């Protein structure tokens, strides 16, 4: 039986896909892989293949809508859904024949009880008229009255139940958030089958790191999952130090470490990385002259010569590199950056290949949303998928170069948005719109890049604004999508607060605002909080959104 794999376009999905491909290879399962970037592509792919395939595996797509409703499959078609999007649609949860959900056991789904949302319709209209032959008229009338009362009661109960059902479903579906990374779920599967390899473990680590970099999970969840993976890492990578057991240099070693929260610094210069990491650039407020001064003071405090800081990290003096982390952390604490250290993993193979998990996430995401060459979307997907294999270092290095360009573009866009006051408070949320013709605006017509930009922008705005109220607001960001068609892509992200639970209410709000104004929108993304909208409907859509959330 061949299997059809439908994989969403995000790094976590790619990692889960790599693990599953490796498992299929072990068991000689034949499969076809189709990348899908949204609901439309998912439906098209299903329609094209539904006659040849009975088994469909959906990775990071399909859990948060009623699949059977959308795809209308035959009775003998089965879906295996491994998706970190929450909340999972209730029909998918309670359908035990055609839809199988792959979920970690300790994931709290908080699904409403079956009886609260589904009920068997009793035959409301009983045939009470047929027994009217021999009985007394008074008897008949009494029975008829009882009947009417009973029916009214039943209707009333049904109305109450329906109202309660609406309320329960509203509470359950109101916020969008993310569960355990799909790559981790797949790795768990491999582990249970005793087929887990070090490479699969690395992909699980990259999948989790993707969730953290994209800000989809809380710090608490990240640290907990890192702990789970750390046990697997020590199981796979412990070695005795004596001569016989030492590994050949080409073997893979994964190591847990406390690393600096600086993007790509080992493949860049320390200076560039400090300037283009959202955490440091927002803390220093690098878009201002004052901020640039603070950065110079910071470097002086560490006692690092500018010449060293601005050259490639690989070429820095070994004497400086040895205790660089300690030096940076010590100075960062003086400058109020308490969280510059982060728990993560790195991978070593060959003599000089050392990558941290976040390097891989940035590189893979940039390859996937590469806008430089015009070509079919799938080529980017395949390149990104390939870059996750150790054998394709050239692709990975290309990805790292693209990622640096992207981070620079994000940083420059953030600086210009803040310096020209493009972030405006609309009442219940902040709003920022990129104009056509802004530098690098094409980059941000892609969802992952736009979300990264929005999160960086909100972080920086919170650091730069004096207004206490504005610090607690969520952000809606728009960028031109396809200029010829006159569409914009819009994303909503939750407030940037310490205790934020990363739950996003914009998905539902966007739907309602679009419905109430008949705006021409397309809810095509697997994340409900990203929509496409006709440019001329934008103002009425925003007005509706403001009155909805006020």
UniProtKB/TrEMBL annotation:
Acidic residues composition-biased segments: 120-136
One Pfam family cited in the UniProt record for this chain: CDC45
Domain of life, per lineage: Eukaryota
Subcellular location as annotated: Nucleus
InterPro entries cross-referenced by the UniProt entry: CDC45
GO biological process: cell division; DNA replication initiation; double-strand break repair via break-induced replication; mitotic DNA replication preinitiation complex assembly
Keyword Cell cycle: yes
Cellular component terms per the entry's GO annotation: DNA replication preinitiation complex
Keyword NADP among UniProt keywords: no
Disordered, as annotated region: 120-144
GO MF term list: chromatin binding; DNA replication origin binding; single-stranded DNA binding
Coarse class of the protein's main subcellular location: nucleus
Keywords: Cell cycle, Cell division, DNA replication, Nucleus
PANTHER family named among the record's database cross-references: CDC45-RELATED PROTEIN, CELL DIVISION CONTROL PROTEIN 45 HOMOLOG
Membership in a protein family: Belongs to the CDC45 family.
UniProt protein name: Cell division control protein 45
Species this protein is from: Pterocles gutturalis (yellow-throated sandgrouse)
